[in-house]
Amino acid sequence: MKTLTLVIIFSAATTTLAREAVFDTGEKPRLILKTGAGEGPAWHPAYGLFFSGDEGITLMTPAGNTSVFLPKAGSNGLLFDHEGRLLVCQPAYRRVIRLDAKSKHLQVLTDEYDGRHFNQPNDITVDSAGRIYFSDPRYGSREGMELLDSGGREIEGVYRIDADGSVTRIITHEVDRPNGILITPDNRYLFVADNNNSEGGARMLWRFALQADGTVDSASRKLILTGSPVGVRMAW
User: Which residue of 94, 129, 183, 192 lies most exposed, with the fewest beta carbons within 10 A?
Assistant: First the structure.
């Protein structure tokens, strides 16, 4: 799903974060691509900018040259983990994978939960322990949704993948349709963009307290932003 993107730059809340500036002083935004950009921009210092689009995952080198890195990827959110491997949400295939940027070796991290297929894994984030978190909304047709609660209600949740490969659902119905997600560098909070593009659907940004075990405190849910953007991307 292509979205309009709202970039939110958060001020550093601690002295640790304050030392890690996102931009050089005086740096201004500049247009690097007019067409073809879709979702999930992820930067690798050696290879360049990876992003999802209609052709698959495209790579733009630091010199500005573009080529299709992985055709027909059916991808959305992209992110490099702490070991420099590319994490990929593939809504078209209802799974999350990991790619080696050099060899293109592909590993499926998860494609089901409790024996049922995911909806459309959308966006992805990682905490300092290397645990992976991803959102799983459903856009378009509601047919074929397999994840239901005990009352038969469809679940569009947020999940965590641990180092041993186990998968845990950490958000079930606390967010209407989770899209963009991000964990703060100090692991204190998980931000989730609520993006239901149906008429009258939620357009909100929520913050949850993230526990040491990688779960969230549902009671800590705090509304940070509400409005009309259909997507939220956050940068530190």
Answer: 129
